[in-house]
Amino acid sequence: MSVEAMSVEQEAQVVEQIRTGREKIYGELSKVIVGQEDVIEQLLICLFAGGHCLITGAPGLAKTLLVRSVSQIFHLKFQRIQFTPDLMPADITGTEILEQDADGHRKLQFVHGPIFANVILADEINRTPPKTQAALLEAMQEHQVTAAGQRYQLDEPFFVLATQNPIEMEGTYPLPEAQLDRFLFNVLIDYLPPKEELSVVLQTTSKRAEPIEPLFTGEDVMRFHEAVRKVPIAEEVGAYAVELVAATRPGRERVPDFVNEWVSWGAGLRAAQTLVLGGKARALLNGRAHVSQDDIRALAHPTLRHRVLLSYKAEAEGVTIEDVIDRLLATVPSSA
Fold first, then answer.
1. Could you give the CA distance from residue 305 to residue 321 in angstroms, rounded to a whole number?
2. Is the pLDDT of residue 220 over 70?
3. pTM listed for this prediction
4. For the domain bounded by 231-336, which CATH number is listed?
5. Taking the domains of the chain in order of start, what are their residue ranges?
6. Is the pLDDT reported for residue 277 higher than 70?
7. pLDDT tens, 291-306?
8. What is the CA radius of gyration of the chain?
């Protein structure tokens, strides 16, 4: 679907729609999801910014339910693909079959695979081999698939929301760094606090969840993308995002000593772009017309945790990527 350029008045209406829509979205999601406010916010930022999202969490934490519920709110076509070691590229992109028409003529007809949807839940993406991961990478980056030498464009908007289980690594195919970098965020879903977990148990064992009401269309989402990109950002805020990302690269001038010790490879340019674009979406969601350094800091963890590779020394000392990002935020100066 295509969206024509908006006038100033239409832009103002879209910004107001985003601002007022946040509470409506949380209201609909509360019918089936308890807690996880940060996870929901980061997922919405991905959708409003037009990016893909990697969701990492143990089994049973409602990752699939959350993605499905979000797709229902936005009235988008949803497809779930369960990734397995025997899944082939044609199983997700589609394949050509031989058909015969009424006149007896035979011809090859391309049958669309499940990738032809607006929201793709790539369940346990690290369980499929590299060949199939590469087919998904083309769809994520180019918004198209190639089959039998022909290119087929995917419908817009197009999002890949992939999940992976961090506690079962046997028989898996870790995603290459090039594909990890295509995900705007890596969102962590953790266990709920006891009080919220009790609420989930009582709620899910007493009655069926209320149906999710759609609030926005695909055309609305495309307009959101355009509005997000037009949010102004001060040069010093953009410079802070760039400096924060540059500080993750070992062996360079003015890089903190702990980065040289604990990091083997830092984040690239796409990380700084993600911080700025995500900051714009976060500002609109919170009813603000400009990006602040707090927006950049709030998105540092989901932006950097899958783009910074730790060294063997960090692993030996029990240092996690979360520890490194926390120290970066405490070390890199800001003008806020």
1. 6
2. yes
3. 0.85
4. 1.10.8.80
5. 1-230, 231-336
6. yes
7. 999 999 999 999 999 9
8. 21
Contact criterion met (CB below 8 Å) for 21 and 44: no
**What gap in Å lies between CA 226 and CA 50, rounded to an integer?**
9
Taking 60 as the threshold, does the pLDDT of residue 75 lie above it? Answer: yes
CB 323 within 8 A of CB 305: no
- CA 18/CA 283 separation, integer angstroms: 10
Q: Is the separation of the CB atoms in 160 and 76 below 8 Å?
A: no
- DSSP letters, 257-279, are HHHHHHEEE---HHHHHHHHHHH
Q: CA–CA separation, 241 vs 334, rounded Å?
A: 10
d(CA 332, CA 151): 45
- pLDDT per residue over 166-198, tens digit each? 766 666 778 877 778 889 999 888 777 777 777
- What is the three-class DSSP state of 331? helix
Spell out the alpha helix ranges (H) of the chain.
Answer: 8-29, 37-49, 63-73, 89-93, 130-142, 177-180, 194-204, 218-229, 235-246, 257-262, 269-285, 293-298, 300-304, 312-316, 321-331
How far apart CA 36 and CA 331 sit, in angstroms, is 28
pLDDT tens track for 32-60: 777 777 888 888 899 888 889 998 877 77
**Burial grade of 131 (CB within 10 A; 0-12, 13-18, 19 or more):** exposed
Q: What is 1-230's CATH number, 3.40.50.300, 3.30.240.20, 3.30.70.980, 3.30.420.360?
A: 3.40.50.300
Quick one: pLDDT band at residue 73, thresholds 50, 70, 90? confident
Collect all residues with Cβ–Cβ distance below 8 Å to 258 and sequence separation of at least 6.
324, 327, 331
DSSP-derived secondary structure letter, 192: P
